[in-house]
Amino acid sequence: MGQGQKQNKALVEGAEKGLYQFKYEVANELGIQPPQSDYWGNLTSRDCGAVGGNMVRKMIEAYENQLASQQQQQ
């Protein structure tokens, strides 16, 4: 990795595999053909941004649903 480049790591140890699969699921849902070689550099920034943005949106939605169900149980 070049100098000054950030290596993204999952905050929760062991979550990398799940996030990796999640990225491909979201790309497929959006109709974006994910790369076979795991190198996303050949995709447009717009497509990569759409995948990442939708991943964040879905993770926030899941957490909000979790919070709502906890509030209902109390």
From TrEMBL:
**Pfam families noted in UniProt:** SASP (PF00269)
Q: Which UniProt keywords apply?
A: DNA-binding, Sporulation
Q: Which InterPro entries match?
A: SASP_alpha/beta-type, SASP_alpha/beta-type_CS, SASP_DNA-binding, SASP_sf_alpha/beta
Q: Which GO terms describe its biological process?
A: DNA topological change; sporulation resulting in formation of a cellular spore
Q: Which GO terms describe its molecular function?
A: double-stranded DNA binding
Asked if DNA-binding is a keyword of the record, the answer is: yes
Superkingdom as given in the UniProt entry: Bacteria
PROSITE patterns attached to this UniProt entry: SASP_1
UniProt function note? SASP are bound to spore DNA. They are double-stranded DNA-binding proteins that cause DNA to change to an a-like conformation. They protect the DNA backbone from chemical and enzymatic cleavage and are thus involved in dormant spore's high resistance to UV light.
Which family is this sequence assigned to?
Belongs to the alpha/beta-type SASP family.
Q: What is this protein called?
A: Small acid-soluble spore protein alpha/beta type
Q: Which organism is it from?
A: Natranaerobius thermophilus (strain ATCC BAA-1301 / DSM 18059 / JW/NM-WN-LF)
